[in-house]
Design goal:
Low-confidence stretches: 97-115, 128-132, 250-255
Radius of gyration: 36 Å
Number of helices: 22
Shape: elongated
Helix content: 40-55%
CATH architecture of one domain: Orthogonal Bundle
Largest sheet: 5 strands, mixed
Length: 652
């Protein structure tokens, strides 16, 4: 007997030593390993310039992370009641529940009850697979202990609620709340909280979309648990049972506006951060863009209203705030989901007469004034290679007399433009175009005056913004700032000091001449090119249209915004109908008119180096009795304004 007792004491001693050693080894391991580290995919959210959400980007998984303070307390109470009643008392394991579950499973001869705590579930969901092996169970226990040692209960609960799966690709309480109820997790009611708490037990089984009755049945059980544990009182319990729950699932609805804009913004953000698009979209970033959703919606609406019915006829358009450089709207095509190719930034198309402002800026510097006259008649030019070049005006109409620069620009006289290029020298036009940022495909030849080079709508808007901005160059941008998943700002746009590229006085004279396309007083042998849209324009605008056999352009600006619109076919087929040739101009006019509704009417600021006088646009002479009905205020570099009146200048 004594020998047996001695053996039992030895066994007990070594058992205690083994147990203590095991505990010491486990805690040494835990202290050595430290807190478990992980990083899960998380939704990247895109904001407009007013810090409102315009897009949520994710792959097959939709995830948000929110702090515990931003989660309704009803959610916390519901999950604790449903999953782990003693969460705040245990250290990762609820041994009483483990024993109870084991007894129940033995008695029923099946594994119908589990005893995983919230801490264990968190460890399994984030760090481990769901394979039921002893190895995974041991790993789960160790990670649960590490969580309990190094994190507070609130930190564990916050991590758990942000990572559990709610079905339909939704991870975390915020994603689930927005997906099922179109509201944030902080706004959830008792009934809604209990319904969502029912889903993680079996997302396919308890999804209110797939099995509404079964989900409600479990929700009611959770509500009863909340009542029994004192989380809600009887009146709250009854109200929750009676509450009507509307499942809306709107969070993954297709983006309504700005698909091309947002795709371009995401590409720019990925370049800034030097990550892939996939890494960006699942990186939990907050991307603040320059989009003005009102402007974007108007641009897309007016485009669709004016585009011909032919589905292959496309549009590319962009709007800049030329004073700040913000890209406020961008439209790259008829339908992003059909053709994601972004024509606003990628399509380079022949500009036609929209190129002429670059020519006439060079001409002003060369010595031209708005009153400089050249003969408008059918003219053949001999090119450098000896071939004959005979540009024509619209409908082969010519003034058959000298016309002024101001009028030639307003009615888009092609002969005047080519003559100017010839007299000034094509090399000067190339230099001027490069000054405006147009550098590719520039050959110093006479036809360049009529826009034989190809440019994207983005680059045309950028070039025209120099004129709009009194010669100052402000670099366009689309990303304001980027915040990472930890709340740290990892990128902030820093505006470069503006650089003066154009002379202030010459650029203003050109700018004011470009308002002439909307002024019928300049119409004569040809009508001003903006006459068809001028009736809708109540603010001051300047611009230039351009039409080739394959492309239609309208580029222009107000004191507030610069907008370029291109329309045509991707395969460069001919524009045949009037609508196909006029669509760009009509879109621009409708869009700019509505964009400026409610804005204070402003005029272009006049620099001190110019002077304005009333002149006859046909002769370029000062206003007099013989031309009072057609005189127009015109600006000149000081000292270059005309001195003769229209009576002294003969009009043939």
């Amino acid at each position: 007997m004594k020998k047996l007792m001695k053996q039992l004491m030895v066994v007990s001693f070594f058992s205690v030593v083994f147990l203590l050693s095991t505990i010491i080894v486990i805690f040494t391991y835990i202290l050595f390993e430290g807190p478990p580290e992980f990083e899960t995919a998380e939704n990247t959210v895109v904001y407009d310039q007013y810090d409102e959400v315009v897009s949520v980007n994710h792959g097959v998984e939709s995830r948000y992370s929110v702090s515990l303070e931003d989660i309704s307390p009803h959610v916390i109470d519901a999950f604790i009641a449903a999953e782990d009643q003693h969460f705040h008392e245990h250290y990762g394991f609820d041994f009483k529940r483990i024993v109870g579950a084991a007894y129940h499973n033995i008695m029923t001869q099946r594994r119908s009850q589990g005893a995983s705590t919230i801490t264990q579930q968190y460890a399994r969901n984030v760090f481990l697979t769901h394979n039921r092996t002893w190895e995974r169970k041991i790993q789960e226990a160790l990670i649960a202990l590490r969580l309990e040692v190094f994190q507070s209960k609130d930190e564990i609960l916050e991590g758990y609620l942000n990572t559990i799966y709610f079905g339909h690709g939704q991870y975390g309480i915020e994603a689930a709340s927005q997906f099922y109820f179109d509201k944030t997790a902080s706004e959830l009611t008792v009934a809604e909280s209990a319904l969502l708490a029912s889903v993680p037990r079996g997302p396919s089984l308890y999804s209110p979309i797939n099995n509404y009755e079964r989900a409600v049945e479990r929700q009611q059980w959770i509500l009863s648990r909340m009542r029994d544990t004192g989380k809600i009182v009887n009146s709250e319990y009854r109200s929750a049972l009676e509450e009507s729950l509307a499942i809306v699932t709107t969070v993954d609805a297709q983006q309504e506006i700005g698909d091309y804009f947002l795709d371009y913004a995401m590409s720019e953000a990925a370049n800034i951060l030097d990550v892939t698009r996939e890494e960006l979209e699942a990186g939990g970033y907050q991307i603040h863009t320059t989009i003005d959703p009102g402007a974007q919606a108007i641009l897309e609406e007016k485009s669709m209203e004016r585009l011909p019915e032919d589905e292959e006829y496309q549009v590319g358009a962009v709007t800049l705030d030329h004073q700040t450089g913000q890209i406020v709207a961008l439209h790259g095509g008829r339908n992003f989901h059909t053709t994601p190719y972004n024509r606003a930034v990628r399509a380079e198309r022949m500009t036609g007469s929209a190129f002429k402002p670059f020519l006439y800026y060079a001409a002003l510097v060369y010595g031209y004034t708005p009153s400089t006259t050249l003969e408008s008649t059918f003219t053949q030019f001999t090119l450098e290679d000896g071939s004959i070049y005979d540009p024509s005006n619209y409908n082969n109409r010519y003034a058959e007399r000298p016309v002024t620069l101001a009028q030639a620009l307003a009615v888009s006289d092609n002969v005047y433009a080519v003559k100017t290029n010839m007299f000034m020298g094509p090399e000067n036009l190339v230099e001027a175009a490069q000054l405006f940022g147009i550098e590719d495909n520039l050959e110093p030849r006479l036809p360049l005056a009529l826009g034989t080079t190809s440019v994207s709508p983005f680059d045309m808007a950028k070039s025209y913004s120099l004129i709009a901005n009194s010669g100052w160059q402000v670099e366009p941008y689309i990303i304001e700032k980027i915040v990472d998943r930890n709340g740290d700002t990892v990128y902030q746009h820093q505006a470069k000091t503006p650089e003066r590229v154009l002379d202030e006085n010459y650029s203003f004279v050109l700018k004011h001449m470009m308002t002439g396309m909307f002024d019928d007083r300049l119409s004569d042998y040809l009508r001003v090119t903006g006459a068809s849209i001028s009736h809708a324009l109540e603010h001051e605008y300047a611009g230039k249209s351009g039409t080739t056999k394959n492309d239609a352009w309208m580029v222009g600006f107000s004191p507030n915004y610069t907008t370029a619109v291109w329309t045509g076919f991707d395969d460069h087929r001919l524009l045949e109908t009037t609508q196909e040739k006029q669509a760009a101009k009509q879109i621009w006019g409708d869009y700019m008119s509505e964009l400026h509704e409610g804005l204070t009417v402003e005029t272009f600021k006049i620099p001190s180096g110019v002077t304005g006088v009333y002149v006859d646009p046909m002769t370029g002479a000062l206003n007099g009795p013989a031309c009072e009905d057609r005189s127009r205020l015109t600006y000149y570099i000081r000292g270059t304004e005309p001195t003769e009146t229209c009576e002294e200048v003969e009009v043939e």
